Request: fold
Amino acid sequence: MRISVEEVFETVKMTLDHHFDIRTVTLGINLKDCIDRNFTNFKRRVSKRIIDNGQKLNKFADQLENKYGIPITNRRISITPASLLLEPLPQNTQTVVEFAKTLDQATKKASIDFIGGFGAMVQKGMTSSDENLINALPSALTNTKRVCGFLNLASTVSGINMNAVEKFGHTLKDLSKRTKNGIGCAKIAVFANVPEDNPFMAGAHHGIGEPDFSLNIGISGPGVVRNVVKQNPNCDLTELSEVIKRTVFKITRAGELIGREMAKLMQVEFGIIDISLASTTSAGDSVAQIIEAMGVKQIGLPGSTAALAMLMDAVKKGGAMASGNIGGLSGTFIPVSEDAGMIKAVKDGTLSLEKLEALTSVCSVGLDMFAVPGDTPAEVLSAIIADELSIGVINNKTTSVRVIPAPGKKAGDIVHFGGLLGSAPVMKVPKVAAPDFIARKGRIPSPVTAMRN
Amino acid sequence: MTAKTQPQICIITVTGKDKVGIIAKLANAMARANANIVDVNQKIMEDCFVMTMAVNIAEANIDISKIKKKLDRIANEMSLNITIQNENIFKAMHRI
Reply:
């Protein structure tokens, strides 16, 4: 049966009016076979692989963008966790920074905007290479433009590595001081239960359980979902969930088609589709506004958590029906600085850090892109992180934190990050939180729910 | 049958204000590109004129990105929105 005018119009409207896009195609690249005690050889091999594959990625993405008329907004690369690759090399800051610069230059040559995976899996403990990488992160991330970092600090199976959580509080402070408005901190996310195939930055990495190459697709479309919610102002919530599910099904199918074809063109394995409603600074591309279109007066008010939970579930169900390869984070992101509705709610005093934390217990990621005063002590940052990660650990889900201590700013000020990262009102946090708790360090053991063998 | 002779159907979608000569211009452009028009439909939806034209570009003498550029020019001249997309995207989204 030929496609009807109505069906064509529905799809065309999604891209023209409601910003539907393939948010990212991210090529995961295994670099384990490049490991070498000779640093020059190692860098040369890594560089070549990134440039060759990055250029291919861009070429085929352009080709498919033309063929299907759906924008492929970002083309990115994720790599094997860097600390693993650096294991046999001298454990000093210079090595880490030089490797970051190699990645940065190769990525630039391939015209790729971000490369992820500059991090480590330290949920249970740190090797000397992990520790060295964390120590060098502030230098590495300030001396590069395109490199993104991640750390998995906790998991349901291992508990929370509080040694690393304590350490990372200081790392963040250092990183924030070195960059304008603390923007360097936007390039690193810390996780509990990090997925190995997440295509979204800053937290993407190519997990050690992955094949040599894996093409992962991130689809978004908050504008599309907001539009269908707005068009159904009077239906009950069961029906509304159905409407959202159907729409997400359609956009996921578009991603599935493009992802499979892209993987075939690149002659690599097709990895996963991550269907995540991800806000951008463009007008209408806001998750908060979906919640508000559902009938909550403003995000942050009572009702927000239930609405977000329902939205998340409908998105997941629509995605799961549309593709057998759903993975990554799949759900809804609620970054503060990139979402006009979230920014407004913080400014209006409706959305506090405490409510944001509650929202993250039902959304797919965590406390994302929010600013705190620059003089927030390291222990307070560590405590915020520990709280968020514990939600992930206990509930067997991914949670993450991307917090920006903005130097010289106080609660209520606005920090402008520019471009994709938007601007954020500085949120109020206490000046003292849990200094003695954080100073204890050690490991918060895995919960009893993890003992399932 | 070679790959070249298998049909490659694309859907051209025109949205905007209805006026004289839209189909003529598109048909002319497609003829020059050696793309065969296989179906045309139009409707008024949400106060908007919507026309879809299915074309087979398997034997076309230029690729889809060049066809797209030609359509962009027509869109500019006539103040319309014109898109061209491979039919499979609609099948993926609207057919199970």
